[in-house]
Amino acid sequence: MPQATISLHNKEFAPYLPEAQITAAVRDLAARINRDYAGQTPLFVAVLNGSFMFAADLLKDVTLDCEVAFIRVASYAGTSTTGEVKEILGLQEDVQGRHLIIVEDIVDTGHTMQAMLQQLRAQQPASVEVATLLIKPDCLQHELHIKYQGLAIPNDFVVGYGLDYDGLGRNYRDLYRVV
Ligand code: PRP
To answer: What is the pTM of this model?
Structure first.
């Protein structure tokens, strides 16, 4: 069971999804990926910072030959109507002809994923799919095909398991939501 309510900065967070439920969802995703990519050598592209814990647990259950890369995204306002233009930072690998699986902790509005998919597809990979632990269907503002979705959640602010509130909370094993 998750621990009691936690305080981060000025907010209180109540237990939401316990570690066991997260672990089960991660295992299911890994099993599907193992089946779908049998005989291939995908490149997992994990998006820092939030995905570090999910990526670590997911990859422990992947039994394929595979590679892992880590990227960050930089966003800056004013160059598009959404002010959400994002640029991929730190991708050293040549992704042309590779089977890519983007690993995210959460897809919220989808702005980040939309921008990443656009930029990665421009580099002509053989395929690109997305594995996200969490998705907020009510918040999604883009038509995105997210093949590997762990848990769909309502529009609550959540922390833990890699996700933060102003830098804090990433280290918790369970997920908490703001009270
Ligand atoms: C979070 C999350 C996604 C993005 C999702 O990252 O990891 O990258 O927001 O939101 P969206 O669908 O509305 O674009 P954040 O910018 O908080 O950085 P972090 O991963 O370092 O916490």
So the answer is: 0.95
